[in-house]
Amino acid sequence: MSTEPAPDPELAEALASVRLVDHHVHSCLAQPVDLPAFGDLLTESDRPAAVGTSPFDSQVAFAVRRHCAPLLGLAPHAPIEDYVAARAALPTDEVDRRLLGAAGVDRWLIDTGFRGDALVDLDAFGARVPGASVEEIVRLETVLESVAREGGADDLEDRFLAALTTTTAGASGLKSVIAYRHGFEFDPSRPEPAEVRAASSRWLAELDRDDAAPRVDDPVLLRMLLWHGIDTGLPLQLHAGFGDPDLDLRRCDPLLLADWLRLVEPSGSDVLLLHCYPFHRQAGFLAQAFPHVYFDVGLAVNYTGAASTAVLAEALELAPFGKLLYSSDAWGPSELHLLGAVLWRRGMAEVLGRWVRAGEWSVADAVRVAQLVGRDNAERVYGGRHG
């Protein structure tokens, strides 16, 4: 029976030792979870599982049992009930220290804009990863929503700009979820002040009729946020592709951004397309076509688990190797923070090792590309680490 050849020792050692920059990630859980809650956290869906099915019959759950169980004192592939019981027997911060510490990440760039009340804050996260840099990615929509009810429509844009200046003082980048709120089929031009005031008036009038937390989805206001984000000069991350049922995947193809990317190019600001699956080949084209466009396949690597090698290989088809970044997009369970790193290292070893064995690549080139994707590209885009 044939077996997969062992990876080149030099390449395997290089991938094991590279200290990653996770350029897009969220914080970890503030409270323990039971078995049903843990299952809910291993899917992007916000719906209950269909009768007769289980969220644990999935690539990501199998990867948890394979790669995370040994760190909690269990054998690989331990039953999920045993795994969650072992998890619950430890303090939550101890689980996090074990799993986060094993990821080999030197720098965590954390999006703080989504359900922060369920997660530990940046200081607490930093205490779980001693020696690593923990930095903030500011979500544009969250900034606008935070000042929505503080005044009227005429000065909403000014209130946003003042809040943006304050919140980005120590931040490493920005993020927008326009893909969720509207999709990428939008007028690419910068909105005129009159357009913004009219949209602000409509939105604030809706808020006056509803006591729910503000949620901006007006395309004019979302465009305003994008353009002001570009004006800061900070790297701007855009969710693209796969996510939860709140988005319309048909409208999340990054190719729809091409006209906007052309307008943005003279600004000198970098745009980073996050996750991208199943549009990662389209993102690779955009990264080749535009010098200011970068991308990752972070979320897809976790959720495709043992099949993630194919996604990584496809991401490396067309894109320049200096334009692909590592991310986990982990949110909540620290298992996802670890799996992003474990599956990326394993997948890159398989893909690059295959090309080395075929004589298409040298070992030295494979090692260099692994370092670029895992660390150096992010260091170049986001600059030196903050204190």
Taken in chain order, the helices and strands follow as HEHHHHEHEHHEHHHEHEHEHHHH
Mean pLDDT figure: 94
Which structural class fits the helix and strand makeup? alpha/beta
pLDDT below 50 for ≥5 consecutive residues: which ranges? Answer: none
Query: Alpha-carbon distance between the termini?
Result: 53 Å
CATH class: Alpha Beta
Q: Mind describing the biggest β-sheet?
A: 7 strands, parallel
Note the topology.
Elements: H1 9-17, E1 20-25, H2 35-40, H3 59-68, H4 80-88, H5 92-101, E2 105-111, H6 122-128, E3 133-139, H7 140-146, H8 156-167, E4 173-176, H9 178-181, H10 193-208, H11 219-232, E5 236-240, H12 258-264, E6 271-275, H13 280-289, E7 293-295, H14 298-304, H15 308-315, H16 334-357, H17 363-382
Parallel strand pairs: 1-2, 2-3, 3-4, 4-5, 5-6, 6-7
Structure in a nutshell:
This protein is an alpha/beta fold and 387 residues long. The protein has a single domain (9-31, 93-382), classed as TIM Barrel, CATH 3.20.20. The protein is built from 17 helices and seven strands.
